[in-house]
Structures are given as C-alpha cells and as structure tokens.
Automatic annotation (TrEMBL):
Natural source organism: Capnocytophaga leadbetteri
EC class (word): ligase
KW ATP-binding (keyword) present: yes
One CC-aspect GO term: cytosol
Reaction(s) catalysed (UniProt annotation): XMP + L-glutamine + ATP + H2O = GMP + L-glutamate + AMP + diphosphate + 2 H(+)
Pfam families: GATase, GMP_synt_C, NAD_synthase
Protein's UniProt name: GMP synthase [glutamine-hydrolyzing]
Xref: SUPFAM superfamilies: Adenine nucleotide alpha hydrolases-like, Class I glutamine amidotransferase-like, GMP synthetase C-terminal dimerisation domain
Its EC number(s): 6.3.5.2
Catalytic residues (positions): 85 (nucleophile), 174, 176
GMPS ATP-PPase domain boundaries: 201-391
Length: 516
C-alpha cells in the first residue's frame, strides 16, 4: 500500500505499547501533520523520509529484563526527536544517566514548578505552574550525557530535558492527554519550532492525493464494494467514485436486520449521491438461515456466511472485476501491526466479511490511513450529508444480536418499531449527537401487565444509550427522566406486544454495549 503513503511531511511515532500511542497520533494529526505509528522493533524501510520522530510511553520499565530496545541509530542526533515517558527514561537510562523506582507511583495531575529560563522553543508560550499529567512508577534520577534539565515538578526533578547539540527532547509527562493543559502547545512547538514541519495534512489535500492515487492504482479496472450504510464504507465509496466513476460497483445488502425503513432510505440516499449501487434484498435468505438459532456466536457466523454467499452471487454478476474496495480504517491497521500482536476482538467485530479466496480480488482500502474523526472530516469535504456522517455505529449482525434468543420476522418487526421510536425521540430532543450509540434490545421474557381491566403477558424491551470514544470502554448516558418517561409511554402505547420498558444502566467494562 505504498501508494497510500502521504506525500507531504511525515512524522514517525515509535510505539512501545502505551495505551496512549494512538492519542499522540491523533493530537499530531489535529495539528495537520501526518504521522504513522510503527512498532518500536519494526522501523519503516523509508525511515530517512520521516521529518521527525516521537517515542511513545510503555507499560514496561527500562530497568526490567523485558525492557524494549529500539534501534535509534538512524534517528537520535540525526532528526528532531521527542521522547515521551518510557522514551524519556530509555534515553536517560541507556545514555549515561540513571533511572530508579519512584518513591511514589505518580499518577494524575501535577504542575511544572520550574521551567528553564533559557527560552527553549519546546516550552515557548508555556508558563511555570502549567498543569501536566503523569503516569509512571520510575523516575529519572540522573540525566544522560549532555542532558540539560528543562522543567521539573515538585516530585520529579527531571520532568523534561534536552540533549545539548541535538534536537533531542524528552518529557516525563504526557502531552497527548487533555489533562496536560498546554500539551497541544508543546507538541506544536516540537513540530513547528523544532522540527519545522509544514502542516499540510488537511482533508482537502488527502482527497486530492487519494483520488490521484486511486486513479493510478486501479486504472481502467472494475472495483466491487459492499456498502453497509455506515460512515466508513460510504466515505470509501465516494472517494473511489470520485476517482473512477462507474467502474465502481457498489452492493448494498438488506439482511432483514437493519433499522426500520433503513434499506429503502439509505439506498435512495446512495443513488442520490450518484453512486453506481445495487440494492439486494436478501432478508428472507438471512432470516431462514437464522431460524431457531439462539447462540450469539452462531448467529454472527450464520450472518457472516450468508453475507458472503449473497455478496459472492452478486459480485459474480459483475464481469471482470479485479478489485475489492474496503472501508478499513487506521486503528484496524495499527491493531494488526501492534507491539502485542493482533487482537481477536477487532476481527470478530468486522462489519463486512472478506470474499472467498478463490475470487482472487486485489484489495483497495482508501481510508487505511485515517482515524474515525478524520473519516468524518473527509466525508464533510466530499459533501456527504452530515446526518449520514454523524450516524451512530451499528453492528454488522444488526438487530440479530439485539433480539436475545431466536429470531423471527415478527420479533424483528417489533424491535424495529421500538428502536425507531427511541432513535426518533433522541433526534427530536437534540440528544442524538450527545450519544455515541443507542438502540433497543428485545428480551426473551414476558412480564405481567394490565391494560384496562385485562391482564397482559407481553414482551419486555431494554433501551441502551452509551457515551464512548471508540467502543472499547463506554458509560451509560444519564438521559433525562422526562425523556425516558415519554419514550417508554410511546413504546408501550404504540407497539403491540410490548408492556414493559427498562433502561440499561451498566457501563463497559464489565458489561458490553450489546447484550449478545
Ligand atoms: P460490545 O458489545 O463488544 O460492542 O461492547 C462494541 C462495539 O462493537 C459493535 N459490535 C459489533 N459490530 N459486528 C459488528 O460489526 C459484531 O458482531 C459486533 N458486536 C458488537 C457494537 O455495536 C459496539 O459499537
């Protein structure tokens, strides 16, 4: 995928496994500087073409036998280098200084009690007392050779230092975490005052470059792409369409487990965007295959298998297709290259399965360099409807994993009604954009109720709304009681077969967002 590499200035982030590495990358990208994350032990071949380097933090200690050792021979002293946390300790410990266990494990907010008055560019515009965020249990007792202390806190004498005669900087605190109030300022000082990088990573430049690359990569060949109604596949399709027009053949499958009216509405939207798209209503095929299945993983596998069959049937109708377009984004790429190796969870969550190997299609992934927020920004630049770009994530298996137990067309219809009432009300009350993901779950139990003089024995539904950044952790949303009351009344009055509504107040972990 080398033709996917950004041709403007590039910064390299060497990852030592810190949970904050992606956050560093996002902060740098927010400053319109393109950066790539590479594992500390797999330096890119074209390392010379990177303008500067940042070393990330790590869960390891430089003093332990498990310490991670990068090869910095092409970097240190040769390019601007900013070492964060573990990186700072690494440069000290193996550069003639000393790292020792701290008396206390430092975690949380603290303040810079001293900033070297030599006006070093790294601290330009940052005043003494600035709040920084620490997370470490080792401390730099003695600086490495030629080390000059740049800042201290009450507990950490060497909170920041530089190496004399080099553009090598090291900081113990985390500038990428928002609790470091001048963190972005410090990063921008490093990028622009020390490394002199031109900030040219913008959505416009990305679109221009990607469209040109796609034209060259694909030439006059045909591309097939599965649209899901989600942000990633839509933006990938629009980019490809801009590059190769109707050589792009999109397939949008209705698995019968989408939201109410979703298939028809989204298909119309796609057509309105000029995409060459075929809508395939395979609801019956999916629901027949799912009949009687209750185990969540079995449901997922069945949906994945039938999706591939349906997609495969359709793809074969497009003669001479050579490429499969996919909406893979950067976090998936990083995950597959991670210091700790690929994680199983991400894979089972993939929306659209790959095609069988025998189709031998080459893969084209126009978004593989982008974080999710960047996909949305690019989508805006491409003129995609903001409502579509702001949609909540929706799982590939759709309502199948929100109907606990076996799935029938009747249950799907009930859940679609409930879900639509909830989602429409969120939109009406302007709460939709404050929530990361919301939906309803049909529980496999009936409960007793009264309707007039009659006793009822009907279904229970749960409502779920969460706040999250990436779905890995999530908090339930404190929706107003009045709102919940109104939604509950509407559901019970309007949806036949439901007599009870509950609200899920569990966070992830230990609960998950979906119930299955
Ligand atoms: P959990 O339930 O694991 O969900 O907390 C985290 C995020 O992943 C979505 N999810 C899925 N997405 N296929 C998908 O495409 C799946 O099988 C699947 N299971 C969960 C979920 O909606 C949430 O956004």
């Amino acid at each position: 995928m080398n033709n996917n590499t950004f041709q403007g200035a590039r910064l390299l982030i060497l990852d030592f496994g810190s949970q904050y590495t992606q956050l560093i990358a996002r902060r740098v990208r927010e400053l319109n500087v393109y950066c790539e994350i590479h594992p500390f032990n797999h330096l890119p071949e074209d390392i010379d073409s990177f303008a500067a380097v940042i070393l990330s933090g790590s869960p390891y200690s430089v003093r332990s036998a498990e310490a991670l050792h990068p090869d910095l021979s092409a970097i240190k002293g040769k390019k601007p280098l900013l070492a964060v946390c573990y990186g700072a300790q690494y440069l000290a410990h193996f550069g003639g200084g000393e790292v020792a266990p701290s008396n206390i494990r430092e975690y949380g907010r603290t303040h810079l009690s001293y900033i070297n008055p030599t006006n070093d560019p790294l601290f330009e515009g940052i005043s003494q007392g600035s709040q920084v965020w620490m997370s470490h249990s080792d401390t730099i007792k003695q600086l490495p050779e030629r080390g000059i202390c740049l800042a201290s806190t009450a507990d950490v004498a060497n909170a920041a230092y530089r190496i004399e005669g080099e553009d090598t900087y090291a900081i113990q605190f985390h500038p990428e975490v928002s609790h470091s109030v001048d963190g972005t300022k410090l990063l921008s000082n490093f990028l622009f005052k020390i490394a002199h990088i031109t900030p040219n990573w913008t959505p416009d430049n990305f679109v221009e470059m990607t469209v040109a690359n796609l034209k060259e990569q694909v030439g006059s060949e045909k591309v097939i792409l599965g649209l899901s109604g989600g942000v990633d596949s839509t933006v990938a399709a629009v980019l490809l369409h801009k590059a190769i027009g109707n050589q792009l053949h999109c397939i949008f499958v209705n698995n019968g487990l989408l939201r109410k009216n979703e298939f028809a509405n989204v298909l119309k939207q796609y057509e309105g965007m000029g995409l060459n798209v075929k809508g395939v209503d395979a609801s019956e095929r999916f629901l027949t295959a799912l009949a009687g299945k209750t185990d969540p993983e079995e449901k997922r596998k069945t949906i994945g298998r039938v999706f591939i069959e349906v997609f495969d049937d359709e793809a074969h109708k497009i003669t001479d297709a050579k490429w499969l377009g996919q909406g893979t984004i950067y976090p998936d790429v990083i995950e597959s290259l991670s210091v700790k190796g690929p994680s199983a969870t991400i894979k089972s969550h993939h929306n659209v399965g790959g095609l069988p190997d025998y189709m031998k299609l080459k893969v084209v992934e126009p978004l593989r360099m982008l974080f999710k927020d960047e996909v949305r920004r690019v989508g805006r630049t491409l003129g995609i409807d903001p409502e579509l770009l702001g949609r909540h994530p929706f799982p590939g298996p759709g309502l199948a994993i929100r109907i606990l137990g076996d799935i029938t067309p009747e249950k799907v219809a009930v859940l679609q009604e409930v879900d639509a009432i909830f989602i429409d009300a969120l939109k009406e009350e302007k709460l939709y954009d404050k929530v990361w993901q919301a939906g309803a779950i049909l529980l496999p139990i009936n409960s007793v109720g009264v309707m007039g003089d009659e006793r009822t024995y009907e279904k229970v539904v749960a409502l779920r709304a969460v706040e999250s950044v990436d779905g890995m952790t999530a908090d339930w949303v404190d929706l107003p009681y009045k709102f919940l009351q109104k939604v509950s009344n509407t559901i019970i009055n309007k949806v036949k077969g439901v007599n009870r509504v509950v609200y899920d107040i569990s966070s992830k972990p230990p609960a998950t967002i979906e119930w299955e």
